[in-house]
Input
Amino acid sequence: MEERKQGLSVARIIDREKYYKNKALELEKELIFTKDHVTSLEQQIAVFTEQQEQQDEREEAINQLKQKYDDLEQRYEKDIQAHQQLEQELQSEIDRLNKQHKRSYEYELSDYNQKIQSYEKLLAEVQNDLNEKEKEIDIYKRRLSVMDKRLKSQGETRLNEEPVLEADSQTEHEAQRVLSFMDYALIVHEKRCMIRGELIIENVGQKGLGVPYICFRFTPGDAATIKGKIMSWESPESESIDQEKWQWAFLDTEWAEEAKERGEIWIYPTQAIKLNAGNNLIISDLQIPIETKYYQQIGVEVFVYFPEENYRSKAVNQILINF
Output
């Protein structure tokens, strides 16, 4: 019995030993695990502590930045207020200067405008004077041009003295003979009439003749008026004379003007022409206006004079009209 009891005790002891060994192993494992866990926790705590310190540093830096921002914001507000006050003061000064300058400028502008108006008026007067002078210069230029053409024309065909129309020279110049006549028509209106026609001058002699001068003698003398294709040196058309071409013109010498007062109108060619034997000259589109209420009778005689040959001839017909 005792041996059995002893055997049971040893077995229990062995079992207990195994149990405690196993328990010790488990506890050792748990201890190792706990140590590892503690180490991990310590590491985590260290990391957390470090992060917390960094977080504290960040928060402190943020707080410092906030403080600086608040200080800057306060300074900005003060600067804004100071700037606004300065801007108001400057604007007030600008307004004051503008008002002062405006008054001065308005005075200067008014004075300046008056001067401008005075200068413009003076310039207008000067321009008008210049325009008048230019017109006068143009007139004198035209007159000089006309005088030059007149001198050239009269230099070629100059008749210095009035010829005697009634003298008969045909017997002295039998080889020189001219036949001239008027071909005309009378156009009658209610209070006036117009004689229109042409003068034909034909050389029926044996020799050529020089420059012809034509005289129209009116009866009564105050009816002496001729129009048509006859140029007057006083007319504007005389400026456009083509010196290469000749035409008929009114003679404007002193004796011709005196003759016109007696009722005689003289015309001549503007260039030295010749009337050769067998040829003729035609003065076309002659116009003689007549106011019928002033006259009962009108007569027009025509004479042709050649000063180079001292030969004169009267037209074979004359104009004679009774009203």
